[in-house]
Structure formats: structure tokens, C-alpha cells
Amino acid sequence: MTTSPQEPGAPEQAPDLDPSPVPDPDTAQPDVVPSPAGGDPLTADPGEPMEAPD
Questions:
Q1: In the prediction, which pLDDT does 34 show?
Q2: Per the confidence metrics, is the pTM higher than 0.85?
Q3: Nearest Cα residue to 42 out of 29, 52, 31, 32
Q4: DSSP labels for the chain?
Q5: C-alpha triplet 5, 22, 40: angle, nearest 5°
Q6: Residue 5, SS3 per DSSP
């Protein structure tokens, strides 16, 4: 019965499923890009914001 719960094969299958979800993260990456995009103004004129403090 201990072998049934352990089922080393089951854990191995889990990792196999991980690669499948990988595509999801890829789609999420584009979404994450927009987040940093918020800093576009800063990236557009990084000198200005930095000069202001100066």
C-alpha cells in the first residue's frame, strides 16, 4: 500500500504537465511587458526624472 501512495511515476507525470502550462506563462509574459511599460515615460526621458532630483 505504501508503494501506491508513493507512486514515483505520478510525481514524474506532474513535471511533464509543467511543460504544458509553460505556454501560459509565455502568454503572461506579454502581459507583464505592459506592466513595465508603465515606466515607459521614465525610460523615454530617464534623464529628466533623474535631473529633477539633481
A1: 53
A2: no
A3: 52
A4: --HHHH-THHHHHHHHHTTTTTHHHHHHHHHHTHHHHTTHHHHHSSHHHHHTT-
A5: 140
A6: helix
